[in-house]
Amino acid sequence: MAKKTLKLFASPSDCETAFYDAFERADLNLMMTVWADEPGIVCIHPQGPRLAGLTAIRTSFTEIFSQGPNAKWKVGELRKHQGQTLSIHSVYESFTLPDRNEIIPPVLATNVYLLTPHGWRMILHHASLSPEGTTVEEQGVMRILH
After folding, report:
1. What does the pLDDT look like over 12-60, one tens digit per residue?
2. Which of 4, 33, 43, 77 is most exposed by smallest CB count within 10 Å?
3. What are the chain's domains?
């Protein structure tokens, strides 16, 4: 059996690009390469439960990718904070389904990356629906959460 080599992501942006490329191509191997091999990794899909650990995350992406590639992704409005070993990205995820004529509101996502001995890896992906498709700043409205 050939030894599996890990892809080295030199920056959080490289890792993020691979994450969305894996989504668009429905490439489970690439998707799992993006994730850190850490016990505390978490993925939350829009309106989904918290998935903790590689096994749960792999299972969810296996199900998502079971229909094959079916969406085109556009990621925009990146806001980020980066330290030496941790990077936090807040983005809009917009996607289209080629065989459907419907407008899909953008998804707001937070992606967190950790610098590991094998390069940058994702440790958190948390996505939630954005019904109005805008941020609070764009709406000119201040919401109090707590």
Report:
1. 999 999 999 998 999 999 999 999 999 899 999 998 999 999 999 999 9
2. 4
3. 12-134 (3.10.450.50)
